[in-house]
Amino acid sequence: MSSANIALLGAIAGFTIYLGLPIGRLRSPTPRLKAGLNAVAIGILVFLVWDVLAHAWEPVDEALGKHEWGSVASKGGTLAVGLTIGLAGLVHYDTWMARRRTAAARPAGPGAATTTEPALKTRSQAGSLALMIATGIGLHNFAEGLAIGNSAAKGELSLAVLLIIGFGLHNATEGFGIVAPLAAEGERPSWLTLLWLGLIGGGPTFLGTLVGQHLVDDTLSIAFLGLAAGSILYVVIELLAVARKAGLKTLTTWCILLGLLLGFATDAIVTAAGA
Fold first, then answer.
1. What is d(CA 104, CA 100) in angstroms, rounded to the nearest whole number?
2. Whole-angstrom distance, CA of residue 62 vs CA of residue 267
3. What is the mean pLDDT of the chain?
4. Which of 125, 194, 203, 275 has its CA 20 to 30 A from that of 178?
5. Is residue 191 within 8 Å of 10, Cβ to Cβ?
6. Where are the alpha helices (DSSP H) in the chain?
7. What is the rounded distance in angstroms from the CA atom of residue 21 to the CA atom of residue 272?
């Protein structure tokens, strides 16, 4: 299979993320539907945190088994830095954005209307959260693209194709996770917004496939996986806060379980391929 065909299949795997994005266009979702969408997204993202960290830790664990302490320090340090930037970096970024939102929503004068401030803040928060999810998934998908490209570069074409199929199915569920905060808040994104969110979340699979065919490097892959895990973990924390406010504990629990099972089911092909 030519490099161009591998790149094309990598693009298809990435852009299956658009299969889940149209859910964000639902009109006036009910409170139970909002809570359910939010909870399923939590389940999917919790699975992704586990999946990303498992792949990031594997080279470190292998180096530990061989007592290669220099490699352990290098790869382990890379993972720690990636996690720190992905998690703590988003905390500071969100704090900065919250201050900007508060300043922008402040009334211009004594007679200015204030009734729209909570709604404006909620919409801004939902949009920011969706963008953060897309960014975290995009970093994750870049690492997946590296795996596809690396397999092709090593001549393991059957593995590369199976990875493409598995990651494509996986990305379809990730698209749902991106728009869940918008659907949960009743905000209906434009088609252009969905287009950009899909490019941020799914496009890196294609880019990673291109890079992976020419650059086989564990440290680079660990760095992106660490960033992805940290950013996705931050988003899970935020979505759990939304779930607690909804007060639908039983529904939330079952939908989180459903999201977890969806994550494992769509990852089954990748696991069978030996990724």
1. 6
2. 22
3. 77
4. 275
5. no
6. 3-15, 31-65, 69-105, 117-153, 157-184, 191-212, 218-246, 249-272
7. 27
**Amino acid at residue number 232:** I
> Exposure pattern of 62-90 as b/e (b: 16+ CB <10 Å)?
ebeeeeeeebbebbbebbeebbeebbeeb
Backbone angles phi, psi at 185, to 5 degrees: -95, 0
The answer to whether the beta carbons of residues 225 and 143 sit under 8 Å apart is yes
Go through the chain and tell me how many residues it has. Answer: 275
Are the beta carbons of 25 and 182 closer than 8 angstroms?
no
Render pLDDT for 30-84 as a digit per residue (tens, 0 to 9): 678 777 877 887 888 788 788 878 888 988 998 898 888 988 899 999 999 988 9
- The reported pLDDT for the residue numbered 274 is 60
